[in-house]
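Notebook entry, structure prediction.
Reason for the run: the old model in the group folder had no record of what sequence produced it. Starting over properly, with the input documented here first.
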Amino acid sequence: MKVGLKWKVAFAIIAIVAVTGLFWKPVIDIPNTGQFLSVDNIVNSDVAWILAAAGLVLLMTPGLSFFYGGMVGNRNIISTMLQSFIALGVISILWVVVGFSLSFGESIGFTINGIHYGIIGNPLSYPFFNHVGAFPHKQMASTIPFILFALFQMKFAVITPALVTGSFAERVRFISYLLFMVLFSLIIYSPLCHMVWHPDGLLNKYFGVKDFAGGTVVHMSAGFAALAGALVIGKRKNRDHKPANIPFVLLGTGMLWFGWFGFNAGSALSANSTAALAFGTTTIASAAGMMTWIFFDRLNGRPVSAMGACIGAVVGLVAITPACGFVSIPESIFFGFITAIVSNTMMHWKVLKRIDDTLDVFACHGVGGIMGMILTAIFAHGEKASLLHGGFDVFGHHMIALLLVSIFTFFGAIVLFYMTDKMIHLRVSDKAEEEGLDISQHQESMDW
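New structure, fully documented this time:
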């Protein structure tokens, strides 16, 4: 098989990173002045829980690969699963080299009335995990080693571009997807993560956006990028196929649900009552989403299906993510209920049907993230924390932030898809698409 220049360049980049890492001597034993606390501040129970939670979140990416892989046609199972799984390699390395710095490094932004609002992190703050070691960070994670916080956040960065892949499954070249994934992580995910989760981030500090575990940062960004991808890349030549393996979808849903406890409850960054609340609201919202989806399907003349139950469960998980530590268990039932209805309706909306979002990523993750953000702004507990608790300004700021995030992620992704296509053509050939990406891209196939 002839090896193109693009593969040689990709290998050269990996080689440069590896050699640089060999000679890089990161400072991990001496904290930066003023940023870190003594190791005496570490709480061992918090360390144990976040270690477990990070492992749970990592499991979500293989879970997503089964979830997506079971939904596509027989000739595209392996390629679809690999598009999710490969993010564990690409984004993990990218995160260590520069991604963590861009997301949680010293804020670069603007100052108004003496108050600084960050847009993105300084890439020179923590390159190759420099200054990321055993010392807890004062503002971001005061009871666990900073390296554990960085690794926990890495798992969120990994799964986000993997979520996008469901929208363009069965028609994108693998090498092009790798390039898009890197660009998406650097140009969309990292700034959004910084603005929402960094203490000096614009959406956090000025707009007061409440996103406990990633409804905005992960699901809205992935959902709108998925919509952009479906529009730019275009429709498949043959959209008629049956899901290849429903048991894969069930297995993937179970892995996602299990991992989501780390995703949500782990975002408390401590083994405390907030983590317990997030654990409870997560599973109950998912249960409500699952049951609502199958009953709503039946009321609309569609059969009760395993696929529907799985999609409903995931939609419930998406909806509760931004609010899981801010609302009660009974309220989480409503989150799953109303979001499942809206998402189900959007999935069958004729306008969206004309766009070939292969696995309905926007209808599930994009709409689920939007609903989660709106519902959080309405129901979140605390003094003036939401609309129902006197926080009219908070609700208004959430709606403005929702609009800004939607515009940034959608149009930003459109630009990135066009950039990727100019550098490495995105779509496979008609012949390769007909043959299936498992064979045409990877020379592998499922032997049933």
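Summary: The radius of gyration is 21 Å.
The old model has been moved to the deprecated folder.
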